[in-house]
Amino acid sequence: MKKIGFLSFGHWSASPGSQARSAADVLTQSIELAEAVEELGGDGAYFRVHHFARQLASPFPLLAAIGARTSRIEIGTGVIDMRYENPLYMLEDAGAADLISGGRLQLGISRGSPEQVIDGWRYFGYQPGEGETESEMARHHTEVFLELLKGEGFAQPNPRPMFANPPGLLRVEPHSEGLRDRIWWGAASDATARWTAEQGMNLMSSTLKVDETGEPFHVQQRKQIEAFREAWKEAGHEREPRVSVSRSIFALVDDRDRAYFGGDSGSSDQIGQIDNFQAIFGRSFAAEPEMLVKQLAEDEGIAAADTLLLTVPNQLGVEYNAHVVESILKYVAPELSWR
C-alpha cells in the first residue's frame, strides 16, 4: 500500500495552450487541484518552491489555503530551499499552516537546486559565514529550524510585557505539536540520505540523483533508500520513517493523453551535469495502463518507498491534471497493490 499524491512545480506563462497564464491562475488552480484530488481519493498535494521564477515560490499561504479547503489529504512541499530561509519566521508560518490543516503538513526541505539567478539567497539577506559553503549554510538553517520545532522556550521575556507571558523562557508561536516528525529532506546522494536519517527527518528522493554507480536510476534510488533506512536504524529513532519518490507517469487512456504524451513511451534515463557533479535523471512513463503496470512493477525505487508523488503538467489545467491522477488511481495502482 502506498500514499499517492501529486507534485506541482506551479509554472505559469502566457504561451499558447497554457491554462495557467499568471501567478493568480496557478495559485487558485493549485487549490482547486488539491480539492479535486482529495475527492478522487488521492493522498497528497505537494508543491515545488523556486525563487525568481514564474513558478510557485511562497508555499505557506498556499498550503494554509489548501488546508482550509480540504479535510484529509496531506499537504506539503518538495522542496523548500533552506539557503533562503529565516528559521524563526519559517517556523511561525509552518506552525500556522499546520494548525489550519489539522496537522496534515508534510514539509519537504533541502539545500535546493540551481536557481534562476546567481546566489539568489544573497538578495534575501543571507550569506555563508566565514569558511562556510552555501550547502553548509542551508544545513545550519535547518539545524536551527529543527531545534526550534521541539517547542522549548529560549527567548528572555520582557519584564514589563504588553500582554501577560507564561512562566519561563518564551518560544516561537504558534507551535504545532508533532510537526517535527513530518519534516522531510530532499537528498540527491547516498551520503545525504544517511545524514537525513541521522537528523531524524523523512527522506524525499526525486527523479534526479547523483550518479554514484552507473546503474539504472531506479536501482541507485533503491540503494539510496536502503542506506537511509539502515542509518535510521543505527541512529536509534523510535518512530518508523517515511520515504517518498517522485515520478512522471501518464496512463494513455484517451485521445488527449495520446496527443500530449504518446510520444514519450520510449523514455529512458538521462545523464547530465548539475552544479559540479554528474547526475542521473529518471525516465518518464507514458503507456497504456497494462504496459504501465508491467513497467512500474520493475521500478525498484518505487517499490522501496511508501509514498509516490506524481509530477503533473500544471499548465494543462485542473481538469486534465485531475484526470492524470485519477487514471493512475483507477487503472494502475490497484493492479500493483498500491491500493
From TrEMBL:
SUPFAM superfamilies: Bacterial luciferase-like (SSF51679). One of its GO terms (cellular component) is cytosol. InterPro entries: Bact_Lucif_Oxidored (IPR050766), Luciferase-like_dom (IPR011251), Luciferase-like_sf (IPR036661). One of its GO terms (molecular function) is oxidoreductase activity, acting on paired donors, with incorporation or reduction of molecular oxygen. Residues 10-257 form the Luciferase-like domain. This is LLM class flavin-dependent oxidoreductase. It comes from Nocardioides marmorisolisilvae.
